[in-house]
Amino acid sequence: MRLLVTGGAGFIGSAIVDAALEKGWDVSVLDSLRPDVHAPNSTTDPRVRFITGDVRDADALAIALAEVDVVSHQAAKVGLGVDFSDAPDYVASNVLGTATLLAAMAKTRATRLVLASSMVVYGEGAYSGPSGPARPAPRRVADLEAGYFDPRDENGADLDPELIDEESALDPRNVYATTKLAQEHLASSWARATGGTAVALRYHNVYGPGMPHNTPYAGVASLFRSAIERGEAPRVFEDGAQRRDFVHSRDVASANLAAIDWTEDAAPGSFRAFNVGSGDVHTIGEVAQQLSQHSGGPAPIVTGEYRLGDVRHITASSDRLRAETSWRPSVTFDEGMREFANSPLRGAVE
User: Fold this and answer.
1) 199 and 272 in contact (C-beta within 8 Å)?
2) Model-wide pTM > 0.90
3) What's the distance, CA 49 to chain centroid?
4) pLDDT above 70: residue 105
């Protein structure tokens, strides 16, 4: 079987490539090597057929998709971004890029797709309150300015965070989230139109060796590590109590391989979404503390700052993925954070 990994030179893509090679698969990579997320000397395993090109380039896609059976689509512009001026690049990279890839796949023998989606499609996570399950509206600026960060219900009552599952309502609340949901809709449409099979993996907070640093588009764990490398204290927004599910990149890679296996047995035209999380809830403040402790860096500073578009709490139920595939996470939070605190990041972006 030949696998194509778009964005295969990137943080998660390269972990998928490594896992696929370990299984003896024939692997191709299509990557544009964007300078905002790649060091100039980015390389891949010599066993990989590497095509330098953009997923919006039909000629590059024609070369990359030759003889391919299944595609793991990781190429994307990620993160919340700097400000709304990033919107055109997000839409072009993620939405147009996915549409162009799927249109090219429709002309080839590649009938199976695994798409990198994200927890951000849910907006705020799942909550319960005095009246039962609740999905709060976006937090009010007045509350955030006053240092009250937890969502409330329509009556002002506090809400308790819970695990979110794939049947929960989707509510993207920023440009990046909107593009990830659009990618899912395109994948579902492609599967129905072509008889292919598609999976959207909704990654929760992925971390691990080789994350890019010195970029506003990296995940929070990478931003903390970058600060520590500069000799600075990690700056933790809000009060640091934001709940997340931090899942290691090797576990995300194995989830991709499990999802690829799922597409082989699925009925033609099938589309399925799966959460990918460790099942172990931690706060952003805990991550900063762990990384500072294990690296011997400065203690974190809790700033009280906030960003509109950030959600307060979102943690995954990955029960569906566990039930329908053989996947199980293997890296514990303590093991992963200790490794990450002392592992190299991807080359600095100047």
Assistant:
1) yes
2) yes
3) 24
4) yes
